Each structure stands twice: as C-alpha cells, then as structure tokens.
Amino acid sequence: MTKRTHSNARKRIWKYSPLYLMMIPGIAYLIINNYLPMFGLTIAFKDINFTKGIWGSDWVGFQNFKFLFQTSDAYIITRNTILYNVAFILIGLIVAVGFAILLNEIKSKIASRLYQSIIILPFLISMVLVSYLVFSMLSIESGFMNKTLLPALGIEPISWYNEPKYWPAILTLVHTWKGAGYACIIYLAAIIGIDPEYYEAAKLDGASKWQQIRTITIPLITPVIIMLTLLAIGRIFYSDFGLFYQVPMNAGALFSTTNVIDTYVFRGLLQLGNIGMSSAAGFYQSIVGFVLVIVSNYVVRKVNKENALF
Q1: CA 308 to CA 310: how far, in whole Å?
Q2: Which own/partner pairs from 222-226 qualify as long-range (CB within 8 Å, at least 24 positions apart)?
Q3: What's the per-residue H, E or C state across the chain?
Q4: N or C: which end of the chain has fewer CB within 10 A?
Q5: How far apart are CA 30 and CA 132, in angstroms?
Q6: What is the pTM of this model?
Q7: Whole-angstrom Cα distance, residue 100 to residue 180?
Q8: pLDDT tens readout for residues 149-171
Q9: By the 8 A CB rule, do 74 and 68 touch?
Q10: What is the pLDDT of residues 204-263, one digit of tens each?
Q11: Which of 60, 28, 110 is nearest to 277 (CA)?
Q12: Under 8 Å CB-to-CB from 290, ≥6 apart: which residues?
C-alpha cells in the first residue's frame, strides 16, 4: 500500500513537473524579496554599531520603540497614515464603483475603450511627474490657481506650500485622481461578468436604472468590493511614498499634515541616520497592518462567511 502510494506520488510529481518548474522563479522571488528581508527586523531591537555589524551590535530590547513613542512624531505619523488611508479607501471606493457603473452603461465599444484609457492614464504617470503637475497648479509665482482661478473669484493668492491645512484635501484629490481608474477597471470587469438575464428580468418587472444598480449590480460585485477593501485595510499603515514625499515637494512647513510612517522612516534614515528608530517604526507598521487584516477578515467572516478572504 505504501509502495503504491509512493509510486502514485512520483507519477503525480512527474506529470506536473513543468508546472513545478514554472513555480520556481515565483517562489525564489517571494523568498528573496519578502522573507529574507525579515531578518532585518532584528535591527529594531539593536543599538546599531557599524563597526560591529548588524549581528554584532548590542541588543537594546524595546528602547528604539520607547524612543519613538516618547516623541510627538509617533502620534502625528500614526494619525496621518490612518486618516489618509481611511479617506483614500472610502472615497476611492465610491469613485471607482461609480465610474465602473457609468462605463458599463456606455454602449459604444469605441467610446467605452476611449474613456477607460483616459481614466486609467493617471495611474501610469510617474509620481514625480504628478508632483510637477501639482506644482504647476499651485506655484505662488506662476501656478494656475494663484494666477488665474483665485483672482477670478476675488480671492487673494495662497502660499500653498506653506499652508498645511490645505494639504489633506489636495493629497486626497491627487490620490483619487491617480488611483481610481485602476480600481475602476477591476470593478468594471466584475460588472461585465454579471449575467444580463438579471437585468432583463428586472426591466420586465419595471425596475428603474437606479433600482437595477441598487438591487443587482451592487450586491453582485460586493465580494469584489470586500476583497479589495480588505486588501486596502491590510495596507492601511502603509502610504504611497511618492504621494506624500514628492507631491508636497518635501516642504518642511507641511510636515504636520504630510508626514506619514513611510516618509518618517525615510527621513529618519536619510537625514538623522537613526536606523534603530526607523526600523522600529517599520516594524510597528507591519504588526499593526497584520492585526488589522486579521480583525477585518474576522468581522467580514462574522457578517458573511463567503465574502471572507480566509
């Protein structure tokens, strides 16, 4: 019985050997890119001394975390990171689903492809280029807002790069403009996959377009919405570094509303050279993100088991 089992296992391995070979590059990438760097987490618990190296440096326990949370920086970067990501998730979801529903209503294939290309185009633009597009709009000397729009409305020019209060709205607008098209295409694919017979039956019953959207489209794409939202929640402690670093032009006057964990870690490494505290901030980011995914999936599982990721 055992010999037969082993023989069947060998035959199965030989049969699927091309697939196993194709898996090797992906597995190697996952190990090298995602697992090997985990050993660097030890830096968060060490007093790094370059002459001793990472492994030879002294252990300091939670001193790096204590130093991080004793400063006001921990509260500011945590608040900014979470609030921005919550706004991005909610507004991005509404805009992307709305665009997907509108695109699905366009009957001309040429027009639909054209609008899809226009919507997804910002996603393909480098954040560096986006930062200069924003600068061309907000520059105090030559920006469109200060030279054209605000004077037309009778409003005094605004020094955008010295006024932190405007940047939550600016960054949210830029992020939505740049990222909604990508999510929109995913939701559009889900909507196109809905059986047309549901809509035909609804029309026979006299359902309006809004009733069809509310009772057919939204419920049937809910699993996709939940999946993408859970994935977004898993990264709620991560930020788009380019958005928060490049778009505000790294202006120090804006740090109170533009500094997030990713930019804080980068500045900690580049400007302060504090590897231990930067690593502690990154470790803190990973742990909270992991906990949020587990909790969110648990809540979804309680509400509807089929919509949970695991």
Answers
A1: 6
A2: 222/307, 223/306, 223/307, 224/186, 224/187, 224/190, 225/93, 225/97, 225/187, 226/300, 226/307
A3: CHHHHHHHHHHHHHHCHHHHHHHHHHHHHHHHHHHHHHHHHHHHHEECCCCCHHHHCEECCCHHHHHHHHCCHHHHHHHHHHHHHHHHHHHHHHHHHHHHHHHHCCCCHHHHHHHHHHHHHHHHCCHHHHHHHHHHHHCCCCCHHHHHHHHHHCCCCCCHHHCHHHHHHHHHHHHHHHHHHHHHHHHHHHHHCCCHHHHHHHHHCCCCHHHHHHHHHHHHHHHHHHHHHHHHHHCCCCCCHHHHHCCCCCCHHHHHHHCCHHHHHHHHHHHHCCHHHHHHHHHHHHHHHHHHHHHHHHHHHHHCHHHCCC
A4: N
A5: 35
A6: 0.76
A7: 10
A8: 888 888 888 888 888 899 999 99
A9: yes
A10: 888 888 889 988 999 899 888 888 887 787 777 777 888 888 898 888 888 888 888 888
A11: 60
A12: 234
Which amino acid type is present at position 247?
Answer: V
Rounded distance between C-alpha atoms, residue 75 and residue 58, angstroms? 28
User: From CA 174, how far away is CA 85, in angstroms rounded?
Assistant: 13
Phi, psi of 152 (to 5 degrees): -65, -30
Distance in angstroms (rounded) separating the CA atoms of residues 77 and 7: 58
Q: Please, which residues have CB within 8 angstroms of residue 58's CB and are 6 or more apart in sequence? A: 46, 47, 49, 52
